[in-house]
Design a protein that fits this description.
6 helices; mainly alpha; DUF4126 domain-containing protein
Amino acid sequence: MTSSAVLRAALLGTAAGGRSALGIAAPVLTSSPRWPLRAAALAAVAGELVADKLPGTPDRTMPPSAAVRLVSGAAGGWLLARRGGGGQVLPALAGAAGAATGTLGGARWRRAAAPRLGALPAALVEDALVLALAAAAARATPDGPAGSRPGAR
C-alpha cells in the first residue's frame, strides 16, 4: 500500500460525502467489465444527482444519511485498495474520514453558496466538484490505469 492509495481513498471519500453513491460507483464504473454493475452504478449516481435537488431531500448531516456516506466512503476506499492489490484497512479508514469531511464541508458550502449563487447553481457546482474528485480518485491505480492490474479484463 502506498500513500497514493490512502490519498486517493480520502479523495473518493470526500466525493462520497457530497454524493453518497460515488463511493462505490466510481470504482465500479472505472474497473468493472460487467455492464449490469456499471449500469446500476450509473443509475445510482444519476438518481442521486437528481434527488439532491428536490426540496424534500433530507439533510446530509442527519444520522441515517451521514452514516450511509461514511460507509460509502469506507467501501470506496476499500475497493480502490483491493483493485491496487495493497492493504485495505487504512484506505477504508481514509475513505470514511474523507466522507466525514465531504459531508460536513459540502453542507457548509451549500449553506454559504446558495444565498449568493442560488440553490440550484450551488448544487450544480458541488456536483461538478464531487464528480471530478471521484473521477480523479478512481481512474488511476499505482500500477497503471484503472483496471490494468495483472489479470484484469
